[in-house]
């Protein structure tokens, strides 16, 4: 897997690939010889997802500052 290529994929594509990889690993049918490779691929996809989320969060914060009239709240996922 080319790290540069993965950094250009969208959040949705990276998440979908990560979910597929996890589902494959959960079958227990991945040979040990491939396990480390799949784990590394999963870590790269997770990093892409995390980066995309941070970028979106920064863009939202910038938009809020530009508008000046928006209030920020801490998001608690347990309250949803």
Architecture overview:
With 80 residues, this protein is mainly alpha-helical. It has a single domain, classed as Orthogonal Bundle (Helix Hairpins). Helices cover 70% and strands 0% of the residues. It contains three helices and no strands. It has helices at residues 3-6, 11-26, 32-67. It is elongated and about 55 Å long.
Give me some keywords for this one:
Helix Hairpins; elongated; 70% helix; mainly alpha; single chain; 80 residues
Any chance you could write out the topology, listing elements then pairs?
Layout: H1 3-6, H2 11-26, H3 32-67
Helix pairs in contact: 2-3
Please sum up the structure shown.
The protein is mainly alpha-helical and 80 residues long.
Instruction: Indicate the proportion of strand residues.
Output: under 5%
Overall geometric form: elongated
CATH topology value: Helix Hairpins
By CATH, the architecture is named Orthogonal Bundle
Main beta sheet strand tally, sense and closure:
none
At the first level of CATH, what is the class? Mainly Alpha
Individual helix count: 3
Supply the CATH superfamily name: Exonuclease VII, small subunit
Structural class: mainly alpha
Mean pLDDT: 84
List how many beta strands DSSP finds: 0
- The domain tally reads 1
> What string, H for helix and E for strand, traces the elements in order?
HHH
Q: Nearest-angstrom radius of gyration?
A: 17 Å
How helix-rich are the residues, as a percent range? over 70%
Which consecutive residue ranges, at least 5 long each, have pLDDT under 50?
none
Give the terminus-to-terminus CA distance.
Answer: 36 Å
The quaternary organization reads as single chain
